[in-house]
Design brief:
It contains 2 helices and 7 strands, in the order H-E-E-E-H-E-E-E-E. Strand 2 and strand 3 form a beta hairpin. It starts with 5 loop residues before the first helix and ends with a strand. Helices cover about 15% and strands about 40% of the residues. A 7-stranded mixed β-sheet has the order 5-4-3-2-1-7-6.
């Protein structure tokens, strides 16, 4: 299974409600995504107290190279993202 690329994420979320709040989910917790860090080969999403909306995240990712992969930094561990799940009012990244 390949990590989620920006082009995949933007394509998958094109027709979704832009007010969905973005979260990352693990088997034990759900973390709000609020910070986006741009590295040379990937984009790293960081948890915060207040989540970004889907629209805010799409606007941040749109100018980045479409083949760039998405990862999440949690507990000082970088984890690649592999997909999304819609659970209104949340968009869950996995």
């Amino acid at each position: 299974m390949s990590p989620l690329r920006i082009s995949d994420f933007l394509h998958l979320t094109t027709e979704l409600d832009l007010t969905l709040k973005v979260y990352f989910t693990t088997p034990t917790q759900t973390l709000p995504i609020g910070v986006v860090r741009f590295l040379p080969t990937e984009v790293v999403l960081l948890p915060t107290k207040k989540p970004l909306t889907l629209k805010e995240l799409q606007l941040k990712l749109a100018p980045i190279a479409p083949t760039t992969t998405l990862s999440l930094m949690s507990n000082d561990t970088l984890q690649p993202l592999f997909g999304i799940k819609i659970s209104p009012p949340k968009l869950l990244l996995k």
